[in-house]
Amino acid sequence: MSTKNIFHLAALAALVILVQMGTAWTETGYYLTQLTMIAYYSLLIIGLCMLMGYAGQISLGHAGFFGIGGYISAALTSHNFAPYQSNPFVNFLISNGLLVGRTDLYGETLLSFHPWPACIIAISFTFITAFIIGIPVLKLKGHYLAMATLGFGIIIYRVVLATEAFGEADGLSEVPGFELLPGLVVSGDFDARIENYYIAWGFVLLGIVLLLNLTNSRVGRALRAIHGSEEAAQAMGVNTARYKLYIFVLSAVFAALAGVFLTHYNGGVGPSETGIMKSVRYVAIVSIGGMANIWGPLIMGVILNFMSLRGLLGSYDDVVFGVILILVMLFAPHGILRLNVWSRLRLFFFPTPAKSSPLKENQ
Questions:
Q1: Over the stretch 162-209, which tens digit does the pLDDT of each residue have?
Q2: Which residue in 81, 277, 298, 354 is deepest, having the highest Cβ count within 10 Å?
Q3: Are 149 and 61 in contact (CB under 8 A)?
Q4: Which residues have a Cβ under 8 Å from the Cβ of 336 and sit 6 or more positions away?
Q5: Phi and psi (nearest 5°) for 175?
């Protein structure tokens, strides 16, 4: 990892600490709730940034992977398996500590999956799904790939709406906290708000370290070659199909992890998290920040998600993201952090006429 990246990581860690200290000093600790949620959304965004910015593949189905992780973990950890204790398989799960007892809000004793095995099952299912979907879908290019991943997102959205085990339109609630280690729990508990804030941003830092090391490796160089020209990369011996599939699966796993942790933090998950506009929002954030740069999408994701979660955009939330995406595609296709505003506007409204060749002038 380069010195520049180490400096950026240290700056991010220092900023995380300073923000928390600032909220404590100004007695605005309620902001930590939104900032913790933003951290988990950022996991998805940096994973999608790798897919779009380095492999050059557009996905409009990442909200579906987010939903798979969140819904499977929520269903397993909130469903009561106590009535099935006579089942040999359930007894096997109990004897191996995979099912644990807990008390719900009404004092009733429930028997459900421990969050760790539930998380592993959710991530494994996401991995397999992304692998199976990615093999045929990644043979497509451009808007065909976008439409195929959009179709996948629609399927996941309709499945969670129609499945009773997933709460249908009401979603799932009363999801217990995720005990990472003894005394270290991901939950929406008010008294653990600061603790959860640092846990969430700790995951983001770990994710960035992993992706930065990946981009500076042989795999990262292969992905950049694919983004530049898939045909040229393949001619140079790069197995483009394999690398595209690997990064697609990795970005899906990042989205599922975000779904798992945010679901346990919120104590529930609803079908809106798998909606099409959620996927459009993630693509818009990555595009705004600059696709081939993890830091740009991270910064823009924090700003725009904070505005959205605080209700600053009102009922025009999705409209604003749609307009921003259109403007970025017109004026800043490489992200607004690399934008020369005045030159872009001048070229858009007053395009420079193409110079005629000397050959044509002499004719």
A1: 988 898 888 898 898 898 988 888 988 888 899 999 999 999 999 999
A2: 298
A3: yes
A4: 288, 289, 290, 300, 328
A5: -80, 125
Please list, in sequence order, all residues whose beta carbon lies within 8 angstroms of the beta carbon of residue 262, skipping any fewer than 6 positions away: 37, 40, 41, 70, 269
| φ/ψ of residue 87, rounded to 5 | -70, 130
CB 178 within 8 A of CB 264: yes
Domain boundaries, the chain: 3-22+29-80+114-339
Global pTM reads 0.87
Using the structure block, give the residue that is written with the tokens 């459900």: 112
Question: CA-CA distance, 235 to 203, in Å (whole number)?
Answer: 38
Two tokens, residue 343:
């030159």
Residue 352: per-residue pLDDT: 60
Which CATH fold would you assign to the domain 3-22+29-80+114-339? Answer: ABC transporter involved in vitamin B12 uptake, BtuC (1.10.3470)
Cβ pair 299, 42 in contact under 8 A:
no
pLDDT in tens, 261-273: 999 999 999 998 9
Tell me the one-letter amino acid at 363.
Answer: Q
